[in-house]
Amino acid sequence: MTSPSSGEAMAKSAPGGLAWLLDQRVLLSIAVLAVLPWLLPSKALAVNVLIYGVVVMGYNLLFGYTGLLSFGQAAFFGAGAYFTGIAIGRYGVPWFAAVTIAVLLSTCLAAVIGVVSTRTRGIYFSMVTLALAQLVYYVALQAASFTGGENGLRGFTVDRISLFGLSVNFLDPVNKYYVLMAFAALAMWFQSRILNSPFGAVIEAIRENEQRARACGYNVERCKLIVFMLSGAISSLGGCMLALHLSIVPLDILHYQTSGMIVMMVLLGGARSFFGPFVGAATFLILEDVISLWTPHWQIFVGAIFVLFVLFLPKGIWGTLLEGLPIRKARQ
């Protein structure tokens, strides 16, 4: 018998009004993101929070909910961006088709990497994902005719978004934000459906006790591969959003430092929390934006702040806030 996911358990065990709010987590998250551009110093910063929030949300599905620590998420973030840029710039594919193709190809890449990496466990899994992601980085570096090599991918621009007879000026910062927010909303809805499904309960069972999940008859290796692919698909959508936003794809997007930044963001916001990735992305990007005005060595200060968060807020900002709510998890 499948046990409910932690989100379902929270909602069922919370007081009436709070339970209703927890059931509407996607709508509440969209409502918060809708006012984000007016709360942050710039619209560009708000767009970056959206993009990295989606990428980190995909990683949170793998790390937070399944318990698989990967150091190679940048491979899917970058793949989504590169495939989108190549499809638009080199082959003249419409933006919506380019995004669809990019997510599908990135999911295939995640399947290839996942088949190899999910055969390992623990630190070996982390090292294999890091090695394979760096392999993707060097492939992009060498395939300069397609990717632009060290200079990154350039030569494509999306200035208008046309869909269902509507045409939107994509160069306007406000329009750009809300168009990209639609992608983020779709990703949140998709992940919420995964977490509320029986499969969501299975991956959480794998995180809590892999041997017991296997003893219950679940094909743990297959479940890990599926969640690895789903995680890669969601993170690649963030890469598609970045390509549409910048009209360039820098090579650094595939570097292991980007993977490290994604890990930091999920820990800052709170692993295993639905909205935590956006909180973590906003926290990291705001710290970078503010501290870099004072010193070019902002990484030192952000690293020190990150250590303090890990020591004193191990559940992250959003996870700690949720812990303070009058919620008792039911064990059914």
From TrEMBL:
The keyword RNA-binding does not apply. Pfam families: BPD_transp_2. The keyword Transmembrane helix applies. One of its GO terms (cellular component) is plasma membrane. It comes from the Bacteria. The chain crosses the membrane at residues 45-62, 68-88, 95-116, 122-141, 177-204, 225-249, 261-286, 298-318. It is a multi-pass membrane protein. Its main location: membrane. Signal peptide: none annotated. It is found in: Cell membrane. Keywords: Cell membrane, Membrane, Transmembrane, Transmembrane helix. One of its GO terms (molecular function) is branched-chain amino acid transmembrane transporter activity. InterPro entries: ABC_transp_permease, LivM-like. This is ABC transporter permease.
